[in-house]
Amino acid sequence: MSASDASAPDRLECPAAGSGLLPGELRAWMILLAATGAVEQRLRSQVKETLDVSHDEFLILCLLAEQPRPGLRMTQVADLLGRPKTRLTYQIACLQRAGLVTRGSVCGDKRGIQVALTDKARELLRETSALLAGTVRQALADSMGPEQRAALCALVPALEDGPSGC
């Protein structure tokens, strides 16, 4: 057991876990949020350093990367990410200035705006994906013990596909 495994469960334990005040599902949710926060914190700095975009802009790029071309309507992006449309408009404008997305009219709908990744963005994501995945993997390893990782892998089986597994 590594030093991070020994101390990790203590950091993620819910303060009321032993008191019986919270049901198991709520404790599990709180642990998941703590692990997610640890991953997000590391990923934020790595994304800024590597891609020179904000974490929220990175999420937009990831969402668009998973879509077949030509992209998604702005309203779909806002709905899928749970973001206000006004904030999304600003973030898309930043990504467009950086040459990472394009915006265009939706055929047959004068009000509809479609957003798509540029080839530059696809290449940048391709170049940095292994580094960013490693950042997530390490943050998860540092933020939870082996039993918690096993439970997470049971919930998210795709994590087991990585080079180091769960």
Write up what this structure looks like.
This protein is mainly alpha-helical. Helices cover 63% and strands 10% of the residues. The chain is built from seven helices and three strands, in the order αααβααββαα. A three-stranded antiparallel beta sheet has the order 1-3-2. A hairpin with a 2-residue loop joins strand 2 and strand 3. The longest helix has 28 residues. The radius of gyration is 19 Å and the shape is globular. The N terminus is likely disordered.
- Total beta strand runs: 3
Order of helices and strands: HHHEHHEEHH
**Helix run count:** 7
The largest beta-sheet arranges its strands as 1-3-2
DSSP helix fraction: 55-70%
Distance between the termini: 14 Å
Report Rg: 19 Å
Helix/strand/pairing class, anyone?
mainly alpha
